[in-house]
Amino acid sequence: MISVQLTLTHLSGLKQNEREVFSSFPISIGRAPNSNVRLAANDTRASTRHAEVIQDGKNLILKDLKSTNGTYVSGRRIDQVKLVNGDVVEFGIGGPKLRFDFIAQEVPITVKDSPLVEPFIPPPPKSVPVRLKEASNPRIAPLAISPTMGDVITSSEKPTPDYISNSKNSTSRMLIEEREFPFRNRFKYVLFALGGLLLIASIVLLVKQILIWTVPSGLIGLFLVIMGWSCSRINITASAEGIHYQGILRSIAIRWDEVTELKAFRSRTRLLTDLVYVVRSRNNSTIVFSIEDYQDGLELANLIARRSRLAW
Q1: How far is CA 192 from the centre of its chain?
Q2: Helix (H) or strand (E) holding 302
């Protein structure tokens, strides 16, 4: 029996420097959520179902699944090719690149795997009388001493390591750490500057006893400073539990298991933004954002798609 272990290294794209290992085939590659090798949702030069890898003895065959932008090996577009260890494949011109490293070896068929030989089942061990020895520490379970095996410590309650959590969401907490994506506000510094100037002007007017302009300039300056501070608080936080939007006037939190739809469309005006992303929940709560407005916006959109297991 021939076993092939394939290691895929993402050389470019939003999943750059990530590695994936496979030992069973075929392997589907694309942006679809059910792909074995799922490319990032925003790597749009790659197709939803782009290519697949099948095993042919000791060889691996890469097939293009009639993708829009094509599959390229060493700069040459292919429909089907036998991979060579270390090949770099580009999925669409300018799209994500993956390096294919694989090892093929023959695995001997063991007696257990052979259908002609029945596996040997050893008889159950004979019970051995055990006597209990009192432990010196009352917090430790008694010691079980076997006359043939020597001293063996058994405990009815095994300690749980500190890094293992018994909660339902322990796995997701280990996979996704809480991360904040701040809003790239284009006007907060202008608001802070104008508000600060008006506050300074109101103080100067107060000193010169020009009271008719002191109060209006002070109130407007304070209002602009508060608006700038409110704009600086806008952010989107992604955690193990869900996604949380903090705006100026409202705050929205959506759990990952409540996300029902991810939608992306082009803005009609395209003056301040191009693509608009919408996250919708079961109770019709929506979070709307644009990747241009947030730091690492592409990574935020990719993280939401991977965690909710939906496609934009």
Answers
A1: 36
A2: helix 297-308
3-state SS, residue 132: strand
pTM: 0.39
From the DSSP assignment, how many helices (H) and strands (E) are in the chain?
4, 21
Question: Could you say which of 2.60.200.20, 3.90.180.10, 1.10.3810.10, 3.40.50.300 is the CATH number of the domain covering 2-106?
Answer: 2.60.200.20
State pLDDT tens for residues 65-81: 999 889 999 888 999 99
Secondary structure string (H, E, C) spanning 157-225: CCCCCCCCCCCCCHHHHHHCCCEEEEECCCCHHHHHHHHHHHHHHHHHHHHCCCHHHHHHHHHHHHHHH
CB count within 10 Å of CB 139 equals: 5
DSSP designation for 111: T
Record: fold of 235-308: PH-domain like (2.30.29)
